[in-house]
Design goal:
Helix content: over 70%
CATH superfamily of the largest domain: Farnesyl Diphosphate Synthase
Number of helices: 9
CATH topology of the largest domain: Farnesyl Diphosphate Synthase
Shape: globular
CATH class of the largest domain: Mainly Alpha
Number of domains: 2
Strand content: under 5%
Radius of gyration: 20 Å
Structural class: mainly alpha
Length: 177
C-alpha cells in the first residue's frame, strides 16, 4: 500500500497530502535556504532589530524557493548554490512586498501591521533596498562560483540576440547592461 492509499485510509485528504509531498522532498534544503537568509540579516539584529524581527511576519509559504529547489532536484541534485539562490529569491520577493506596501499604502500584510505603517515610508524603502542589496550580493557570489569559461560571452550573445529580436518585432525595450 502506497503513502497516498494509507493516507486515504486514515481519513487524510488526498489533495492535502499531494500538496505537502513536494515540500517534504526539499524540507532540509528549505531549512538551509532559511538559515542563509537568517545569517545574512544577523549583523543587523542590533541596530535595526525591531525591523528584522518584524520580517518574520512576512514569511509566507516560501513557494518561490521551494520551486527553485524542486527544479534543481528534478534536474539532478540540489547543490549549495541552489540553497543560496533560494534565499536570494525569497529576499527579492520580500523586498518587493515591503516596497509594494508603500506604493499601495497598505496597512496590514498577513494580518500584521506593514513596515510603512509602523516605521514610515522612508524606513520601509530602505529596508526593501537592504534586502535587494543583500540578495544581489549573494547572487554575485553564486555567479563567481558557477562561472564557466565563455559563459558570460554566451550570455552576452544571447542578450544581443534578444535585443535584435525585440527591434525586429517592434519592441523597443532595450537592456543596456
Amino acid at each position: 500500500m502506497n503513502r497516498l492509499q494509507k493516507a486515504h485510509g486514515n481519513g487524510i485528504a488526498a489533495s492535502r497530502l499531494c500538496s505537502e509531498m513536494p515540500f517534504e522532498l526539499i524540507a532540509d534544503d528549505l531549512d538551509e535556504a532559511e538559515r542563509i537568509l537568517t545569517d545574512v540579516l544577523a549583523p543587523y539584529r542590533s541596530p535595526i532589530a525591531p525591523l528584522i524581527q518584524h520580517l518574520r511576519h512576512y514569511r509566507g509559504k516560501r513557494l518561490r524557493p521551494a520551486l527553485l529547489l524542486l527544479c534543481a532536484k528534478a534536474c539532478g541534485s540540489i547543490q549549495p548554490e541552489h540553497h543560496t539562490l533560494a534565499a536570494v529569491v525569497e529576499m527579492i520577493h520580500t523586498a518587493t512586498l515591503v516596497h509594494d506596501d508603500v506604493l499601495d499604502e497598505a496597512e496590514t500584510r498577513r494580518h500584521v501591521q506593514t513596515f510603512n505603517q509602523g516605521w514610515g515610508n522612508k524606513i520601509s524603502i530602505l529596508l526593501g533596498d537592504l534586502l535587494f542589496t543583500h540578495a544581489f550580493h549573494l547572487s554575485s557570489r553564486v555567479d563567481r562560483a558557477c562561472d564557466k569559461p565563455g559563459l558570460r560571452r554566451r550570455i552576452a550573445a544571447g542578450d544581443r540576440a534578444w535585443e535584435f529580436a525585440s527591434e525586429r518585432n517592434g519592441l523597443f525595450c532595450h537592456h543596456r547592461g
